[in-house]
Amino acid sequence: MTAATIFSRSTRSRVPGFGLSLGFTLFYLTGIVLVPLLALVLRPFSLHLDDFWIAISAPRVLAALRLSFGTALAAAVIDTLFGFIVAWVLVRYRFPGKRLMDALIDLPFALPTAVAGIALSTLYAPTGWVGSVLAQHGIKVAYTPWGVLVAMIFIGLPFTVRTLQPVLQDMGRDLEEAAATLGATRPQAILRVVVPMMLPALLTGAALAFARGVGEYGSIIFIAGNLPMKSEIAPLLIVTKLEQFDYAGAASIGVVMLAASFVLLLALNGLQVWAGKRR
Amino acid sequence: MKKNRAATDDPPLLRILLCGIAFVFIGLFLVLPLLVVFSEALAAGLGPVWAAVTDSDTLAAIRLSLLAAAIAVPLNTVFGIAASWAIVKFDFPGKAFLVTLIDLPFSVSPVVAGLIYVLVFGRQGWFGSWLTDHDIHILFALPGIVLATIFVTFPFVARELIPLMSDQGREEEEAALSLGASGFATFWRVTLPNIKWGLLYGILLCNARALGEFGAVSVVSGHIRGQTNTMPLHVELLYNNYDYVGAFSVAALLALLALLTLALKSFLEWRYADELAAVHRH
After folding, report:
1. A239 and B218: CB-CB below 8 Å?
2. pLDDT tens-digit readout, B233-277
3. Are the C-beta atoms of residues A124 and B32 closer than 8 Å to each other?
4. Which residue of A has its CA nearest to B83?
5. What ipTM, to 2 d.p.?
């Protein structure tokens, strides 16, 4: 309460409940989120830091991190491209089934990841609806790194669409009109005028999709095949190490992933400031 | 005269092309996975579906999922209201940082979310030996599952309410207070009616994620069949035991829940667009 009484002097608000609401907020946030996260951050320091580096630089760990981060980046790029097209279609065109398509975009948010995982795995397995067609052309998706990519595209799509949609909605058409009167063709107007204006939103959507892909577990493990060095993602390696009671190894990978989350969060905040300045 | 098209309208060919790409992409990545869940579940007719859903282990998993959500969602709702009240109605240093911290659980991997509780409560964790001495079970038991669920659903209500209440300002509350209303009456009679649809929207998303969480809960649950398996974990167990009809039957139940959530969400966005922050952002 002492902190609250100090703060309340500087607030001009006459609304009551400052101490209670902020006190509970800080207590809950500290207990549920901050203290447990601290347990992870401090873990490498409670060992020898050398052990941390040895754990992180093991070939299997490096391969898992490379797969998670590399594939998430590819999925984010694909989601941004197709997310832009979907958002464009939803904002600019009228067509039957538009409202249904709009509602469906959030399916990866709402569908439990384990359900998505077994569905994608069945769909892209060599006997599945999509997998059997691809198998005829010699393409294997399920139980390969491509399966990881498919799951990450699925899970990241709503982030790009839902970031781009409101920005497209609010964006006036006067600059496009100006471009057209100056002789730009329609594709030129889109690529040279619309896309640059949307740049902060495109990057934000991509960063969100990337963050989700890097950390994703449930929808990937069923379709990936989980071969060490080949199709084993970093979150799965954490789980494997925990099952072997290798807490230090699990925590080492966890710290790297948490650091990536922090960097992404900072980047996203920076993007928000940038987008705000552009308005 | 075909030149009636406005300069900012796309030519018909581009229109058809983009619509086609959108339809194929959504169909391939969203519609087919959804269809395959129901098709696989019903592969052998309705009988096996019913048997799988009413199996005692499945019912235990449903009960556990509902129980965990019934504890986690109200707690996060109270937190969301308290946090947005503190953040919107008052000025204090470090406010922007606090908002960022509240969002933090969304950018942390679910597996890392589970891991941190293992490091606190696990056998080699901070309180591990103390908990063993006093025979208190947090990991591989309900408290751990609830904690992991709270973590992954932490920001849902707060991040819906903070922008919504910011838009609404403080004037109405200040007016009520100056007319002699108590703080509680002001919240109950003035604030709550203003935010009720936004609150419901946040709770809806929070609940869907709470019932569907897999990664974080998987790390702390211990996977004891019929005891610490939630619905998503039970899906995994059945699937790994090659009981595909069983796995997809429970999955179909979860998919129906997801569809219901999407329908309610779309309804709220359509009917109460002015009273939701999410739609303002859209």
Report:
1. yes
2. 999 999 999 999 999 999 999 999 999 999 999 999 999 988 887
3. no
4. A25
5. 0.92
